[in-house]
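Structure first, sequence second, as always.
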């Protein structure tokens, strides 16, 4: 977890140069209370006095507005985030596909009758109704400032919720522009309210009377929020420490390139980054040679990008140095890149045990820890021997084996010979174990509650009543 500033001002910094971009005044406790009171009223109207069709129309308009604003938002996110622009643009396009997906899926969430056995339920009917959660406190993260925001904004608004949205303090400008565009699309200002600030403001938002909380970020913060949320619905999207299993029959070129992309892109600041690799001894040399060659040949500025802050880079560098001092072999990288900005060289470590911090915990930077294993059973045991359960990759030509490994891996998202592409609009993207609250629901359902209504149609009391 990055230690966020507790000072009064929220500062945007360009991580490519280290230059300060903007400062923002955090939302005060009083303004937060006012925003919540407004949003409670706004939500009543957005749900109670706005038809489903009207909300769908507004969301369609929002899709048009965001499609037009793509270059502007991508440029802004690039300034605050620094990672290669084409990667930001690709995640923008991917988030945009969520509009149509959720609008279509909303059809399935119609109030519906529940069939009753007339012999047991004379003159009675029952229905299941879907209702919004109310006002959602949405605490955002910086590494995918558009994607992570939209996979909540779209389903939450469509289903009749209001949102108090606090973007990460590291990407405030992008978050505020997204909120502005949401309003330009026709969503009332009291239905989608931006909140500015860091940890303190986030805590206050959790402690306020919001009806539900959506949080993306570190496990530590997520656990603290879980303790304070009480019985309110909670969507937690937390840290990962994703294993990659490279089987003896993997296509080495594909595996090396896939792992390199999965571990180094966006400077490794991706929740589903391939963070630890277990490679079968019989092909380890060929795989590692390829991986190291790719890592050493990457253009750090153009292909990898900077880390978000100097202190994040210092932390990653410290983990690499700690691992090397305890016996890990540094195969490439291991240095802060020369020049302005917070760049770090793509780094590959050969590791013999999993107790080193660089592999035991989530390392949020361009560092790939590789361990050679004797067989797939050992790989599976090590992969699962972790409190994290966000994602995992499997590299093999044998789809039957892949399917068995996929079912035995303790993670919410599995990729075989593939990395990082999520289902449309973030559908079913959930971790298990400490990485999130696993659920069998599709995403739209997470923003609705069900209500059962049992209606007895005649005036006479039931025979069993006193
Ligand atoms: P973080 O937990 O430090 O901060 C995330 C957000 O939470 C920020 O808006 C911050 O202001 C707020 N916050 C922090 N502590 C809080 C608290 N106690 N109460 C309320 N709000 C609080 O996260 P980070 O380190 O900046 O982000 C990177 C982490 O996010 C990584 O661990 C990464 O794996 C994870 N992540 C997960 C997913 C996912 O979908 N599972 C997606 C992206 C990032």
């Amino acid at each position: 977890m990055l230690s966020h500033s507790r000072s009064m001002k929220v500062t945007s910094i360009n991580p490519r140069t280290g230059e300060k971009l903007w400062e923002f005044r955090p939302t005060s406790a009083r303004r937060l209370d006012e925003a919540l009171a407004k949003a409670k009223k706004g939500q009543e109207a957005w749900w109670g006095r706005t038809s489903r069709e009207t909300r769908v129309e507004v969301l369609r308009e929002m899709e048009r507005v965001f499609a037009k604003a793509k270059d502007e938002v991508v440029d802004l996110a690039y300034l605050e985030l620094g990672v290669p622009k084409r990667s930001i643009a690709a995640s923008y396009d991917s988030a945009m596909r969520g509009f149509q997906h959720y609008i279509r899926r909303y059809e399935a969430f119609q109030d519906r009758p529940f069939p009753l056995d007339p012999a047991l339920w004379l003159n009675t009917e029952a229905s299941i109704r879907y209702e919004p959660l109310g006002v959602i406190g949405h605490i955002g993260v910086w590494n995918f400032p558009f994607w992570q925001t939209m996979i909540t904004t779209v389903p939450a608004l469509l289903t009749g919720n209001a949102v108090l949205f606090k973007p990460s303090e590291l990407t405030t400008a992008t978050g505020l522009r997204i909120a502005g565009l949401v309003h330009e699309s026709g969503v009332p200002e009291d239905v989608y309210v931006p909140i500015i600030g860091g940890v303190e403001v986030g805590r206050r938002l959790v402690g306020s009377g919001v009806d539900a909380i959506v949080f993306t970020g570190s496990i530590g913060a997520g656990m603290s929020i879980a303790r304070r949320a009480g019985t309110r619905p909670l969507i937690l999207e937390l840290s990962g420490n994703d294993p990659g299993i490279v089987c003896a029959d993997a296509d080495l070129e594909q595996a090396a390139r896939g792992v390199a992309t999965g571990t180094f892109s966006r400077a490794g600041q991706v929740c589903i980054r391939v963070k630890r690799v277990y490679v079968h001894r019989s092909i380890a040399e060929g795989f590692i040679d390829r991986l190291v060659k790719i890592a050493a040949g990457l253009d750090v500025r153009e292909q990898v990008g900077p880390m978000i802050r100097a202190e994040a880079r210092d932390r990653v560098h410290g983990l690499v140095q700690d691992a090397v001092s305890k016996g890990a072999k540094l195969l490439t990288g291991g240095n802060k890149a020369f020049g302005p900005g917070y760049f770090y060289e793509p780094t590959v470590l050969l590791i013999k045990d999993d107790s080193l911090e660089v592999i035991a915990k989530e390392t949020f930077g361009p560092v790939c820890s590789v361990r050679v294993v004797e067989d797939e059973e050992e790989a599976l045991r090590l992969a699962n021997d972790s409190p994290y359960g966000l994602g995992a990759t499997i590299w093999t030509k044998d789809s039957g084996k892949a399917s068995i490994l996929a079912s035995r891996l303790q993670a919410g998202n599995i990729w075989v010979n593939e990395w990082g592409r999520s289902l449309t609009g973030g559908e079913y993207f959930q971790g298990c174990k400490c990485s999130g609250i696993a659920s069998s629901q599709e995403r739209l359902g997470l923003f609705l509650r069900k209500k059962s209504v049992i209606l007895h149609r005649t005036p006479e009391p039931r025979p069993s009543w006193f």
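Margin note: The pocket of nicotinamide-adenine-dinucleotide is lined by residues 1-2, 4, 139-144, 148, 166, 168-169, 198-199, 202-203, 206, 216-218, 221, 224-225, 237-240, 271, 362, 364, 390, 431, 436 (CB under 6 Å).
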